[in-house]
Specification:
about 300 residues; alpha/beta; Rossmann fold; 2 domains; eight-stranded mixed beta sheet; 12 helices; 8 strands; about 40% helix; globular
Length: about 300
């Protein structure tokens, strides 16, 4: 089985289960009167496009660390007919063009905008990756106008994995390592070299798994401490079948986090190739991965 290594998250962003979860999330947000959206960690623009569709008078400013993601987002927004502007540094004097999209390479924690610049700040499927959550939420609250909306979704919080899901993910990692061992033995038998796991420190493993995942109540308290009153905090069950798992498995970021030390291409192919067997070993056609969705309003008039 040959699987292309996806360094952009693009394949999983187009997975039907992922798309449906994002659409359900955006559908629950009161966006009809929003005009200035700040989309943090916006990636290829998958969720930003949904935000703009739900906010017919809005313009969007997206920030993402990865210039490759920003490049893909520029293509995606342009294909939808939006006027796109790309930046390498923040624009503190941001003045949005009607229905325009500004894309900037940068960190979600670096927000040098005047207070009250935006009336909506969103961060979809990424807030769990940021360790300095107090600083992040404080910065978001500052750049929101009074009455403005902060929304986020996350598949990684305390309670996101039911016990059966944890079992499937355990089997998936184990099966992937077995797949790599078998491939290594085949290479050696054919006169090649063994596949070795290097003792390196993964850049993503600590971010993905060592940042403490907050409970829904802890999120409610954190937001409240920064002047953000939670209007909605729900847990959405999302079912991932073998195609969904194979799509996320082909993403190099997951391969680094879950199988750090193995060559990126081999680890990605191993995870994609063993998604079905992991489900079969537990005897289920899909796994439930709960997503936390929050919607809060900044205090003030």
């Amino acid at each position: 089985m040959t699987v292309a290594v996806d360094t952009t998250y693009d394949r999983f962003a187009n997975d039907p289960a992922y798309v449906a979860a994002n659409q359900g999330y955006v559908d629950g947000l009161p966006l009809s009167r929003v005009t200035r959206i700040l989309d943090l960690c916006g990636g290829t623009g998958a969720v930003g496009q949904l935000l703009l569709a739900a906010a017919p008078e809005a313009s969007l400013y997206q920030i993402d660390l990865d210039p490759v993601q920003i490049g893909l987002a520029a293509q995606n927004y342009a294909q939808l007919g939006y006027a796109v502007r790309k930046l390498d540094t923040p624009d503190p004097s941001y003045a949005p063009a009607p229905r325009g999209v500004t894309l900037q390479v940068g960190s979600a924690t670096d927000l040098p905008f005047p207070g009250g610049t935006f009336d909506c700040v969103n961060i979809a499927n990424a807030i769990h990756l940021i360790g300095a959550k107090e600083e992040l939420v404080g910065a978001i609250s500052r750049v929101l106008r009074p009455g403005g909306l902060f929304s986020f979704s996350s598949g990684f919080y305390a309670g996101c994995w039911p016990p059966l899901t944890q079992q499937v993910y355990y089997e998936w990692t184990k099966d992937a390592m077995t797949w790599i061992a078998r491939r290594s033995a085949e290479q050696v038998a054919a006169g090649g070299t063994a596949i070795k796991r290097q003792r390196i420190k993964s850049q993503l493993s600590s971010v993905a798994f060592q940042n403490r995942w907050l409970t829904p109540d802890e999120w409610r308290t954190l937001l409240g401490n920064h002047g953000l009153d939670v209007q909605q905090l729900i847990e959405r069950p999302v079912l991932f079948d073998q195609n969904s798992l194979a799509a996320i498995g082909s993403y190099s970021g997951l391969a680094e986090a879950q199988l750090g030390g193995y060559p990126e291409g081999i680890a990605s192919r191993a995870l994609a190739a063993t998604a079905a067997t992991a489900l079969e070993s537990v005897g289920v056609p899909s796994v439930q991965h709960n997503w936390l969705e929050a919607c809060a309003v900044k205090r003030g008039s």
